[in-house]
């Protein structure tokens, strides 16, 4: 159960054992330069020739060209350069050329970026035109038909890398023929190799780039097909390798490995059939439906590669899904580029007019044609585990009420945060500063834990609380009278919550809130909540141990101390980070040290491996750090080693504790990802 399940095949694949052997042979036994005429060189040339012969047959290159290169990005450059140079020459000869460089809206970035780059560099000044796609990711063929007579170059991918959607190349070919279009045609075949039949010379396609690392060859090797008669200009000039088409001594290890993959493909007994792959996808989809209620698939399965699933789950961000899968050692990717706080929407799903929640929350699960039964079965079990972890953490609806939390919970987004004061015994809570983006999350948390919300208060008079109040239903008495800050008219000086009390402190137009033992003597105030730290107002009401909990937290500080910032002491600070090698020695020297997992509770619950150094760890997610910091500071001699997946979150936790004066707080550098497998797996 502890091995990694790699379901990110559209990003890259592992290398086929036969390809590793071929690469090792090319570097060990047959290390010659294929351009040398002596025996050592001839042995290497035989490897090169064999790989090429196999590629020519497999892709149906006919009289066309096929050159090895560094991968698809290079192939795309060469194709675009070749087409644009020819267009410029034709224009200079006075021939009419189209004015448009048309590319599909869901193309890999390498295509529009290359078009813009070479169009500018060659001074062509043609117009880039993004061809829209429909809800199913299919190109707008009516628009392409209308544009075809003015198109100079058309770029469409064979299959999309995010969704696996397959382009109807036959329809495009027919349309170009019917309109008498003179356009050159580039088809990015990266995701199609090994998954779709290609017989290139029998098509109208002029340029087809390929990449080895998407089909079990190493990174840094690829191929470009150019149709016989299509214009060609080398991108790289020099020693004339590859028949003068691509100079530079060949990447023989890569070519030998790619040759081994192509040979396996040609032989036909290594990779799974379309039917088998489709049945694997159906099983994964069933598990996702069972584990993640409401999951939506972002592409029609019958029109996409059988190896790709792209999905979104209502109420969950792609970051949360990525994190829970990663904790279960299932490697997937988010369909979009993630920034630290918020995921940027996927341009592919945007082009398909998917709603924002689906486009920004998309996850891609993809496997290669080497996938096997056992891996898919294991992946399905882990998907179930991830679903259970998310249910237990109230991130997706659950029929059972979750075990209630006690203390403080911080929910943040982009530098601002809401705080929840929770009392498990009375199942009641108070919300401080509900952020608009957090309202759905707070609501489902309250419902799932079955809390009664005693008050929703704000540090500034604002309307967001009304939105949350409206959403909470029977969990909150909307009719209770409050002031503009949500403070209940019935609560005189303080609201009692379990054994604690919350008091409100007026400060000009803003309010601060103090939380501590009933009576709220300064010595017993544990937390002070405020929009901006207001030390002058708060100091007489609090004590040195009180933690300041800001509702703006741009720098991810979680909480601050009331004391003045510590001035440099004579004693040198111990290092903040321990790497996994140093951790063993540290734990031997400090057997009382506590290992703290700061990942979210759903990641902790989905985890399939013991903590670092094989020791069990305690789960204190960053959202609960303030609550626990207050207790840890009471005995700051116990070392705390924070860890997370990559070391980023644990570093913030350790920095927070150090700032608060805990000199024995550390972060595991590189996180679980870099911990040796014996420890992390
Ligand atoms: N085109 C598509 C569809 C891809 O998926 C990729 C890789 O992500 C590329 C082009 C670029 O390929 P390479 O990594 O070989 O440069």
From TrEMBL:
InterPro entries for the chain: Aminotrans_V_dom, Aminotrans_V_PyrdxlP_BS, PyrdxlP-dep_Trfase, PyrdxlP-dep_Trfase_major, PyrdxlP-dep_Trfase_small, Rhodanese-like_dom, Rhodanese-like_dom_sf, RibonucZ/Hydroxyglut_hydro
Superkingdom of origin: Bacteria
Statement: the UniProt record of this protein carries the keyword Zinc-finger: no
EC number assigned by the record: 2.8.1.7
Recorded family membership: Belongs to the class-V pyridoxal-phosphate-dependent aminotransferase family. NifS/IscS subfamily.
GO molecular function, one term: cysteine desulfurase activity
Top EC class for this record: transferase
Keyword Metal-binding: yes
UniProtKB keywords: Aminotransferase, Iron, Iron-sulfur, Metal-binding, Pyridoxal phosphate, Transferase
Residue ranges annotated for the Rhodanese domain, each copy included: 589-676
Record field: catalytic activity: (sulfur carrier)-H + L-cysteine = (sulfur carrier)-SH + L-alanine
UniProt cross-references to SUPFAM superfamilies, sorted A to Z: Metallo-hydrolase/oxidoreductase, PLP-dependent transferases, Rhodanese/Cell cycle control phosphatase
Protein name: cysteine desulfurase
Entry cofactors: pyridoxal 5'-phosphate
PANTHER family: CYSTEINE DESULFURASE (PTHR11601:SF34), CYSTEINE DESULFURYLASE FAMILY MEMBER (PTHR11601)
């Amino acid at each position: 159960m502890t091995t990694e399940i790699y379901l990110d095949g559209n990003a890259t694949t592992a290398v086929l054992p036969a390809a590793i052997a071929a690469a090792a042979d090319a570097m060990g036994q047959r290390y010659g330069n294929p351009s040398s005429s002596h025996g050592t060189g001839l042995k290497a040339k035989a490897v090169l020739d064999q790989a090429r012969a196999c590629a020519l047959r497999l892709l149906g290159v006919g009289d066309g060209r096929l050159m090895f290169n560094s991968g698809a990005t290079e192939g795309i450059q060469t194709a675009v350069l070749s087409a644009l140079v020819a267009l410029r020459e034709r224009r200079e000869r006075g021939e009419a050329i189209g004015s448009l460089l048309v590319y599909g809206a869901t193309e890999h970035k390498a295509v529009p970026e290359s078009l813009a780059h070479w169009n500018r560099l060659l001074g062509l000044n043609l117009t880039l035109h993004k061809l829209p796609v429909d809800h199913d990711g299919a190109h707008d063929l009516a628009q392409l038909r209308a544009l075809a007579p003015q198109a100079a170059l058309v770029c469409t991918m064979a299959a999309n890398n995010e969704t696996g959607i397959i382009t109807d190349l036959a329809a495009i070919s027919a349309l170009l023929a019917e309109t008498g279009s003179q356009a050159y045609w580039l088809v990015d075949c990266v995701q199609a190799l090994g998954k779709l039949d290609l017989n290139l010379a029998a098509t109208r396609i002029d340029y087809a780039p390929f990449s080895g690392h998407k089909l079990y060859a190493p990174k840094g090797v690829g191929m470009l097909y150019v149709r016989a008669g299509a214009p060609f200009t080398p991108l790289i000039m020099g020693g004339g390798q590859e028949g003068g088409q691509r100079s530079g001594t060949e990447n023989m290890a890569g070519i030998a490995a790619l040759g081994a993959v192509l040979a396996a493909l040609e032989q036909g007994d290594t990779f799974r059939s379309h039917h088998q792959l489709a049945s694997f996808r159906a099983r994964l989809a069933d598990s996702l439906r069972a584990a993640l209620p409401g999951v939506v698939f972002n592409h029609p399965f019958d029109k996409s590669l059988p190896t790709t699933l792209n999905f979104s789950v209502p109420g969950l961000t792609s970051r949360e899904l990525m994190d829970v899968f990663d904790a279960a050692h299932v490697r997937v990717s988010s369909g979009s580029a993630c920034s630290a706080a918020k995921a940027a929407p996927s341009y592919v799903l945007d082009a398909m007019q998917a709603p924002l929640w689906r486009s920004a929350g998309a996850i891609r699960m993809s496997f290669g044609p080497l996938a096997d039964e056992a891996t898919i079965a294991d992946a399905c079990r882990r998907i179930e585990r991830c679903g259970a972890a998310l249910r237990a953490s109230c991130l997706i609806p659950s029929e059972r009420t979750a075990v209630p939390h006690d203390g403080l919970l911080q929910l943040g987004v982009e530098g601002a945060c809401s705080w929840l004061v929770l009392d498990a015994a009375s199942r009641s809570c108070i919300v401080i500063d509900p952020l608009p983006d957090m309202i759905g999350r707070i609501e489902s948390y309250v419902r799932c834990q079955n809390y009664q919300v005693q008050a929703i208060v704000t540090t500034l008079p604002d309307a967001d609380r009304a939105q949350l109040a409206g959403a909470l239903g029977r969990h909150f008495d909307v009719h209770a009278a409050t002031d503009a800050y949500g403070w209940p008219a019935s609560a005189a000086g303080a609201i009692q919550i379990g054994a604690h009390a919350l008091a409100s402190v007026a400060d000009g137009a803003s309010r601060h809130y103090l939380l501590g033992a009933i009576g709220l003597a300064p010595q017993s105030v544990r937390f002070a909540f405020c929009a901006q730290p207001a030390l002058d107002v708060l100091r007489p009401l609090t004590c040195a141990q009180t933690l300041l909990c800001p509702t703006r937290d741009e720098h991810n500080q979680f909480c601050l101390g009331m004391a003045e910032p510590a001035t440099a002491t004579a004693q040198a600070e111990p290092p903040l980070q321990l790497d996994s090698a140093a951790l063993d020695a540290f734990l031997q020297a400090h057997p009382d040290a506590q290992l703290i997992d700061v990942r979210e509770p759903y990641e902790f619950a989905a985890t399939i491996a013991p903590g670092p150094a094989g020791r069990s760890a305690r789960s204190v997610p960053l959202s609960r750090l303030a609550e626990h910091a207050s207790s840890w500071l009471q005995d700051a001699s116990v070392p705390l080693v924070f860890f997370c997946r990559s070391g980023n979150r644990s570093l913030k936790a350790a920095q927070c504790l150090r700032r608060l004066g805990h000199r024995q707080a550390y972060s595991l550098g590189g996180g679980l990802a870099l911990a040796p497998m014996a420890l992390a797996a």
